Amino acid sequence: MTDIRSMTLEELSGEMRAMGQPAFRAGQIFTWLHRGAASFEEMTDLSKPLRQQLAERYTIAVPQIARKQVSQDGTIKYLWELADGACVETVLMRYHHGNTVCVSSQVGCRMGCAFCASTIGGKVRDLEPAEILDQVLFAQLDSGVKVNNIVLMGIGEPLDNLDNVLRFLELVNHPKGMNIGMRHISLSTCGLVPGIDALAERDLQLTLSVSLHAPDDETRRQIMPVDRAYDVKALFAACHRYFQRTGRRISFEYAMIDGVNDFDWQADLIAQRLRGMPGHVNLIPLNEVAESRLKPSRRLAAFQRRLEKNGVTATVRRSLGGDIDASCGQLRRKAIEEKAMEEGARTPCRSGD
Ligand code: SAH
């Protein structure tokens, strides 16, 4: 059965027509769903027979909170258990410019970045549009904190699940739904070139973030297997095309790793590659992951100065939630490991390995 929360308003209207209902019913149902309705019973402005008919045709899945951690700085991290037992993480952060929720797009990830906890164990499955939406919706409902911004920077590679992500964007952006403006949404990719081109075609007003992490193939290949499929040259060509098509400035994520990607010549090379388009480099202090030997760099300020000397705007990302494993994939890993250690226990979060 389809999860009705994944359906667009247009699709719902079509369903209502097919069921012999007036078109405005679709709007009523859509509004209930996007306020977090967990059952058709709650939809009290629909007739009982209609509620029953709907319940026979559709499900409404609601994620369960498997774990919740609240940081001293107000950051809240949720580990959700989905209908099939899979788990994903969502982080709610309070910034001066508004409350931002960081959502997952897949259960696990198959991109294999050497520094990232989300990819250990590979990808289990894609998330459905409603499962991405629910992270925003139920984080807001549970916390009572109004969500202003969304970043697709949790577990998973959004451009490896593009159709569902696009549908999620349509849902969350809808005036009758959560109505979060595209300009308040960022999508982060490790650099899947065909996905960047497909996204460019949509010409959305969202911010594209590219996880660069190295401007030369030799280094990038060591830490990001995706570089073997789409090298730095191809990636920047796609970024230039994206800018040409959308006019939107791209943001480049750069996790600073000691002795790997923190040399001045790499800052110079970033500037060279960016020539001809406005770019913004976001320097991130590497979050240490237990399974990896990579260490955080101490050259953030020097690297930032070097970039700016080359005319590239660069910021250092403020780190929130350090006391609650708020970096992506860490809480899910922890839950998987703890369960694995409990002999004979049923694993609540499928690890995919
Ligand atoms: N798959 C997408 C989005 C998820 S990761 C992507 O690759 O962009 C969100 C961001 O966190 C990416 O920039 C990713 O490279 C970064 N990241 C992952 N592990 C990290 C770590 N240990 N320290 C700092 N940044 C990390």
Entry summary:
It contains twelve helices and twelve strands. The protein is of the alpha/beta class. The protein has two domains: 2-59, DNA polymerase, domain 1, CATH 1.10.150; 66-341, Alpha-Beta Barrel (TIM Barrel).
What are the SSEs and their pairings?
Elements: H1 9-18, H2 24-34, H3 48-57, E1 64-70, E2 76-81, E3 87-95, E4 98-102, E5 106-108, E6 123-126, H4 129-143, E7 149-152, H5 162-173, E8 185-189, H6 193-202, E9 207-211, H7 217-223, H8 226-229, H9 232-246, E10 250-256, H10 264-274, E11 279-285, H11 300-309, E12 313-316, H12 330-341
Parallel strand pairs: 4-7, 7-8, 8-9, 9-10, 10-11, 11-12
Antiparallel strand pairs: 1-2, 2-3, 3-4, 5-6
Helix pairs in contact: 1-2, 4-5, 6-9, 10-11
Bound molecules: S-adenosyl-L-homocysteine.
The H-level CATH homologous superfamily of the largest domain, spelled out, is Aldolase class I
Tell me the series of helices and strands, N- to C-terminal: HHHEEEEEEHEHEHEHHHEHEHEH
Q: Please estimate the helix content.
A: 25-40%
Mean pLDDT: 93
What is the SS-derived class? alpha/beta
Uncertain segments: 343-353
| Strand arrangement, major sheet | 1-2-3-4-7-8-9-10-11-12
Shape: globular
Strand content: 15-25%
Largest sheet: 10 strands, mixed
* Rg from Cα: 21 Å
Number of helices: 12
What ligand species are in this complex?
S-adenosyl-L-homocysteine
Fold-level CATH name of the largest domain: TIM Barrel
Total discrete domains: 2
The second-level CATH architecture of the largest domain is Alpha-Beta Barrel
